[in-house]
Write a structure and sequence with these properties.
alpha/beta; Rossmann fold; 15% strand; two-stranded antiparallel ribbon
């Protein structure tokens, strides 16, 4: 049964916490039930305002986790007091820890050259017995149909239970939606920068900043040239749209 969702600017955010996310995903694996997971914050919600196809991809996902405190706070305001942040790197660590005793098999797709292999080493060292059955770092250019089919065959031959997709939003969401029917793995999870965070290539915000909803500020200060537009334009616009919706001036349906 799909967890209830909170409509935030037309994107259905799953009303979950980490424990609930793990229970749902593990159920899919046990039943071999195919789904993809969008780990989504304000950025994903705002990109969905501009792209109807991306909004549809989110709303067709098995889970859309609240990866950002503004989504958590809005969910709680709408009556879902149990909702907590389900952050991509934390979800990866939690699932890998659970996987050791359950024998789940993992495939890492994404990141720069060498990064998925480094991630595999980091996680296998942290969780002895973790089964990693493959890695692939795609080129920055679009794959040809032949190259794409070859990748699908490599992944299916490896027979993973979970495919971790680290391509950033909205590229990873589109990739999961486009490939869901062609891949045999029951679970695809788009985790964006988690590959870089967990390998130490990029610093993570301190926990207190994450809990206070200030991770955006930390990331802006560490990558201003790449992220200024995302945070200095998207964040104020997000607040404005939420206020307009609360006032009944604007209404988005899922």
């Amino acid at each position: 049964m799909r967890p209830p969702r909170v409509n935030i600017l037309g994107v259905g955010i799953s009303a979950i916490n980490m424990e609930m996310a793990l229970t749902v995903i593990e159920g899919w694996i046990e039943r071999r039930e195919p789904h993809y997971v969008c780990v989504t914050g304000v950025h994903g919600v705002m990109e969905s305002q501009r792209d109807e196809g991306l909004r549809r991809i989110h709303n067709q996902a098995g889970l859309v986790t609240p990866d950002g405190m503004p989504l958590v706070w809005l969910s709680r305001l709408k009556g879902y007091r149990h909702v907590d942040r389900v952050y991509g790197p934390d979800l990866m660590l939690a699932l890998c820890e659970h996987s050791v005793s359950r024998g789940y098999r993992h495939f890492f797709y994404g990141g720069a050259e060498g990064v998925p292999e480094q991630l595999s080493e980091v996680l296998q060292k942290r969780f002895p017995g973790l089964q990693v059955v493959g890695t692939y770092s795609p080129p920055f250019r679009p794959l040809t149909p032949e190259e794409d089919e070859a990748v699908v065959q490599v992944i299916n031959k490896a027979n993973p239970d979970i495919i971790w997709v680290g391509l950033s939003t909205p590229k990873q969401e589109r990739w999961m939606a486009e490939h869901r029917a062609r891949l045999n793995a029951p679970v695809l999870i788009g985790v964006g920068a988690a590959f870089d965070f967990l390998t130490g290539r990029k610093p993570q915000a301190p926990r207190w900043m994450q809990r206070a909803g200030l991770e955006w500020l930390f990331r802006l200060l560490t990558e201003p040239r790449r992220l200024w537009r995302r945070y200095l334009i998207n964040n104020p616009l997000f607040v404005a749209l939420v206020v307009l919706e609360a006032m009944g001036v604007r209404k988005m349906t899922e």
